[in-house]
Amino acid sequence: MSDPKKFILLGATGSIGESTLKVLRKHPDKLFLLGASAHSQTEKLSDITNEFKVPLAHLTKKPKDSTSFDPSTRLSHGEDALASLASHPEAEFVVVAIVGAAGLRPTLAALEAGKDVVLANKESLVVGGKLVTETALRSGARIIPADSEHNAVFQCIADQPHRSVDSIILTASGGPFRDLTAEELKGVTLESALQHPNWSMGPKVTIDSATMANKGLELMEAHWLFGIPPSKLEVVIHPPSIIHAVVRFIDGCCLAQLSPPSMTFAMQNALLHPHRFPGVEPSLDFAQPLDLTFHPPPLDRFPCLRHAMDALKQGGSAPLVFNAANEVAVEAFRLNRIGFLQIPHIIEEVMNNIDHSQPNTLDELLSMDRNVRQLSHEYIRSSSFASS
Prior knowledge:
Helix content: 40-55%
Order of helices and strands: EHEHEEHEHEHEHEHHHHEEEHHHHH
CATH topology of one domain: Rossmann fold
Strand content: 5-15%
Number of strands: 11
Largest sheet: 7 strands, parallel
Shape: globular
CATH class of one domain: Alpha Beta
């Protein structure tokens, strides 16, 4: 029996991190957690490092409390130390499960060090797709998608040559408001936006699902992961979240990947690729009725998806602008500074008032990201976007 594969888990305390740990508990003979990071949940990270005897731990924010880590665990802080953890020489691969554009720098650090990256941070490709894919190509490292939709595409394409793929269809549950009218959307509250009908996710991603911004970000991610032009990327509403993606081939045949709506299926496939072993949770029961209905997304009621599709078609820095403006707007909604329907308005205003030329270096990308966030905050502070 071969030794367990050593890996780093960035974002260990989030929902993706939790799914990763479930797979680790199921297959401790195949995986070893060498290092784990969190933003500020000190106690939760301490529990993880104690349970799995993790040698390396990292907190983005230096803890204020006295939570203790096992003496055998080395704790670090700061952005540079996170990049060092992501490129640790003993790690065979790195799971990037950090939420938002903050995942870009450690993703690049891992790839530059030749580490395969199990990517559950779509913003790395949204913000720096060209830089990330070129870095992977140069170092010979692989990017293995862990998002359920992209991992589904990954499984469907398998060893098929790129030229045989005609188009990719990503499915969307439609979130908690898929059946609401435009008038009813005016009454959406933060509490209701955080109640996803199918998935258990962190608050930012859950709100993105409610606005369907998340599906737009996934289109951008798919473009870079699979080299598919925007015109060949589609979204359909599939309420039960059983089919996660469909790949249409040039001969007209379509392959779909099906599994229950839990991230453990995609995570296990990504973590243990190319091998398959017994899963963490039960599979689908085909003796029971399955709802396999689809319909087009209502772009008139979910303008965030329309803005994302426009940004993808524009190219350049437009996806970066969309992502940064969306992150700021979602945080403002969570803090009750703007209403739900103001999220797409903020995005649109920012996208219409910033240059979409393409930054080429990490420093240029991060500088532009900061500028977009500053402009987004200014729009939110303005009287026209002040929450009543």
